[in-house]
Amino acid sequence: MRSIPRTHSAGVAPAPGAGKNAVLKLVGFDCDGVLFDSRQANIAFYNVILENFGRPLLSEEATDYVHSHTFRESLDYLFRGFPDFAAVLEFCRTLDYRPFIPMMQEEPHLREFLRYLRPRFKTALATNRTTTTRAVLEHHLLADQFDLVVCALDVSRPKPHPESFWRLRDHFGVEPHEVIYIGDSQVDQEFAANAGVTLVAYRNRHLEAPYHLNSFADGPSLITAVLRDANLPPSATGPLQR
Questions:
Q1: Does the domain formed by 26-36+105-228 have CATH 3.40.50.1000?
Q2: Among 3-7, 59-63, 124-128, whose mean pLDDT is lowest?
Q3: Distance (Å, rounded) from C-alpha 74 to C-alpha 66?
Q4: Global confidence as pTM
Q5: What's the rounded Cα separation, in Å, for the pair 103 and 113?
Q6: What dihedral angle (degrees, nearest 10) is formed by the CA atoms of 40, 46, 50, 53?
Q7: Which of 60, 116, 134, 227 is the most exposed place for a label (fewest CB within 10 A)?
């Protein structure tokens, strides 16, 4: 098994020994933990729900879980065994996420990297956020920076299932080897493997990925490394089929 290179001081670890003749066409992004540091916003939001039902506040493990899973998956996880889950869902329908959006901190140098990418490359967002996705992008004035946004409401099977990538593939007419996906979680690693696309691990050295990126300031160096490698390293497992 090929060893996975880790991030060098320049911020990008290119994958050695790749094949030939790939063309990068699409750069995909996760939302939470990549576009934004949303950890405090998520903690505050879910703690409001937990407090309302007398449940313990988010643990570190639970925080990691809600960070990368859908809203419904997170509620199922946090309220497993709770006797009145219908009441939880009803309360959540009355809870407005907008007050929590300003707590989400945009990652440094993100806009510069997006300007660098466009229009040469297409950009897309594939996230397990649901109803809040559009509001988050509009609040932070990023809605026009992505050629396509796919959230968990747009698919029947959210990440790590590759259906979100299938939406990107069908929209842009791209193949997996023409795509890189920037993610920060185990869910993103599994998603990239299932889709057969190349993962760029963002600020997470624990993920197995051909490229690691510590800052969007190093984004241009990342793209240079990807193009220099001549071919995007495919997933070790290959893409799942429809």
A1: yes
A2: 3-7
A3: 5
A4: 0.84
A5: 22
A6: 140
A7: 60
